[in-house]
UniProtKB/TrEMBL annotation, chain A:
<feature type="region of interest" description="Disordered">
    <location>
        <begin position="1"/>
        <end position="28"/>
    </location>
</feature>
<keyword id="KW-1015">Disulfide bond</keyword>
<keyword id="KW-0472">Membrane</keyword>
<keyword id="KW-0677">Repeat</keyword>
<dbReference type="GO" id="GO:0005743">
    <property type="term" value="C:mitochondrial inner membrane"/>
</dbReference>
<keyword id="KW-0813">Transport</keyword>
<keyword id="KW-0679">Respiratory chain</keyword>
<keyword id="KW-0249">Electron transport</keyword>
<dbReference type="GO" id="GO:0006120">
    <property type="term" value="P:mitochondrial electron transport, NADH to ubiquinone"/>
</dbReference>
TrEMBL record, chain B:
<dbReference type="GO" id="GO:0005743">
    <property type="term" value="C:mitochondrial inner membrane"/>
</dbReference>
<keyword id="KW-0813">Transport</keyword>
<protein>
    <recommendedName>
        <fullName>NADH dehydrogenase [ubiquinone] 1 alpha subcomplex subunit 1</fullName>
    </recommendedName>
</protein>
<keyword id="KW-0679">Respiratory chain</keyword>
<dbReference type="InterPro" id="IPR017384">
    <property type="entry name" value="NADH_Ub_cplx-1_asu_su-1"/>
</dbReference>
<keyword id="KW-0999">Mitochondrion inner membrane</keyword>
<keyword id="KW-0496">Mitochondrion</keyword>
<dbReference type="Pfam" id="PF15879">
    <property type="entry name" value="MWFE"/>
</dbReference>
<keyword id="KW-0249">Electron transport</keyword>
Amino acid sequence: MSRYHDPSESSQPYKDPTPLPDNVPKVQELGTTSAPLKSAAFFLGAYCKDYNDDFMLCKAENRDPEHCLKEGRRVTRCAIDLISKMRDSCMQEFEQHWTCLEKNNQEYYPCRKPERALNKCMFEKFGLAKVIPGSPEGKTPIHDVQKPIYTGVQK
Amino acid sequence: MPVPWEALIPFGLVTTMFAAAGTLLNVSKRAQNQGKPSRFHLDSWDEMMMDRDKRLTGHIRGQTSNTTAPEGFETSSVWYTERAY
């Protein structure tokens, strides 16, 4: 008559029965998936540095989700801002880079050519450069090396 | 002198079987991954991101660079109900 319905077998997507209360301001959530985000990662780091640092320091004080909601909203808005700007100005290079990443297990090393085109476009339009924090001093960063040892298999 | 071509049939068969099995496996993997090579060496981060991609696009390998999330994205996360070990 009424048997147990396992929630993992339901045909509807999961809907949280306890959403955020109304006194928390609403923010538009970022709808970008993993490959474009990975492609834009270093530019997000350069453009949204202040908001990201604020959020991380806030989390370092207290891991409670309620404590850092405001900083989290700022990070989301900054990311949406940058990705919209990237789509407006550098759509072609951005798309090519993240499609290349998707075909290569989302790793950077086989996709240096589209990456160089994207870096050039981003530098011209917005002045944002890719900097790898923690790369060894004095040596060229791996994304600038012209003849790297580890490359992708040619397809 | 006549060449014993019948002796080469097994070699031909084995090669064909290898090729068929390999092709079938490759096609099966690509069909499961929307025409792209499958992902490997995945850690918890990658699995979390793929689950997020599924909530955004409907498939774990679906990708989009839209900045607006679809309706119901804010409340579709199962994360809060997972057991904390």
